[in-house]
């Protein structure tokens, strides 16, 4: 009788093991498919600007192209080169995230100074579109974060706010403290995102309008990277948008004090 019971138990265990192996192998296949799909998409994204660049360079080299046409085509080549450079920069960032190469080195930073320094970096690009960027921050909020990672994250979000807004509009970069949460809010008056697209914008390579994004130099990776970077800080990033009116991105971070003995740095 005991022997029978043992066999039954063993059969159960073997059955469970077989199920676990099947699940693992399905997961592995899904991952492989996702990786292949990502690679196929990326090679498409890399090829497209190169096709434009080669095509327009060929036209320019023909003898009957007018000076005006040449200027126009050179502008397109420059734009496409910028897109390609951004895409490659994002791919490198993503690879670094995927390989855990972003070591998080936290320090105490004054939030307002962090926001001001990022604003300073993007201001020339905002000026070019005649857009204003306002920094509003509660007095003296210290945050314990990796400054480089936050710079990168905020640059990606502000870059979107600029890219997807019309000339002359404004963007607000806010820093707030709410009980035990630090919040960074980026509000734009841009084109907004259709409701049905909002759930997907943090996915890799997702772009709402591929042709328009091309024109603005989007890679579809900026928000995916931002999400990974904030997760390195156990934080959260969410987005609200009203199509045609504007977008608000909210970054939330648990308030964390520097370990005793570490120095407080001013921004
Ligand atoms: P991209 O590099 O294309 O901007 P992101 O991952 O940063 O890629 O954003 C994904 C998509 O979400 C963009 O292609 C764009 O359609 C939309 N999006 C992101 N931020 C904004 C914004 N502030 N206003 C309007 N649309 C936005």
UniProtKB/TrEMBL annotation:
<keyword id="KW-0418">Kinase</keyword>
<keyword id="KW-1003">Cell membrane</keyword>
<keyword id="KW-1133">Transmembrane helix</keyword>
<feature type="domain" description="HAMP">
    <location>
        <begin position="1"/>
        <end position="33"/>
    </location>
</feature>
<feature type="domain" description="Histidine kinase">
    <location>
        <begin position="41"/>
        <end position="257"/>
    </location>
</feature>
<dbReference type="GO" id="GO:0016301">
    <property type="term" value="F:kinase activity"/>
</dbReference>
<keyword id="KW-0812">Transmembrane</keyword>
<protein>
    <recommendedName>
        <fullName>histidine kinase</fullName>
        <ecNumber>2.7.13.3</ecNumber>
    </recommendedName>
</protein>
<keyword id="KW-0808">Transferase</keyword>
<keyword id="KW-0175">Coiled coil</keyword>
<keyword id="KW-0597">Phosphoprotein</keyword>
<keyword id="KW-0067">ATP-binding</keyword>
<keyword id="KW-0902">Two-component regulatory system</keyword>
<keyword id="KW-0472">Membrane</keyword>
<feature type="coiled-coil region">
    <location>
        <begin position="14"/>
        <end position="41"/>
    </location>
</feature>
<keyword id="KW-0547">Nucleotide-binding</keyword>
């Amino acid at each position: 009788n005991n022997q029978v019971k043992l066999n039954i138990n063993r059969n159960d265990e073997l059955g469970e093991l077989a199920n676990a192996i099947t699940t693992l192998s399905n997961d592995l296949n899904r991952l492989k498919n996702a990786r292949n799909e990502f690679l196929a998409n990326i090679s498409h994204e890399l090829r497209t600007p190169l096709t434009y660049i080669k095509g327009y360079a060929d036209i320019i080299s023909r003898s009957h192209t007018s000076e005006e046409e040449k200027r126009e085509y050179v502008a397109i080549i420059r734009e496409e080169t910028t897109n390609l450079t951004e895409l490659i920069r994002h791919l490198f960032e993503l690879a670094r995230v995927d390989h855990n190469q972003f070591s998080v080195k936290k320090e105490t930073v004054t939030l307002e100074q962090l926001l001001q320094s990022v604003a300073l970096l993007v201001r020339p690009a905002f000026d070019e579109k005649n857009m204003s960027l306002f920094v509003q921050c509660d007095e003296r909020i210290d945050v314990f974060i990796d400054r480089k990672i936050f710079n990168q994250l905020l640059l990606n979000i502000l870059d979107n706010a600029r890219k997807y807004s019309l000339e002359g509009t404004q963007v607000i970069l806010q820093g707030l403290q709410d009980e035990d949460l630090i919040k960074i809010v980026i509000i734009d008056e841009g084109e907004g995102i259709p409701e049905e697209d909002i759930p997907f914008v943090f996915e890799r390579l997702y772009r709402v309008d591929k042709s328009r994004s091309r024109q603005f130099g989007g890679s579809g990776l900026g928000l995916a990277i931002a999400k990974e970077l904030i997760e390195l800080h156990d934080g959260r990033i969410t987005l609200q948008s009203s199509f045609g009116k504007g977008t608000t991105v909210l970054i939330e971070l648990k308030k964390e004090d520097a370990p005793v003995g570490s120095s407080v740095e001013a921004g």
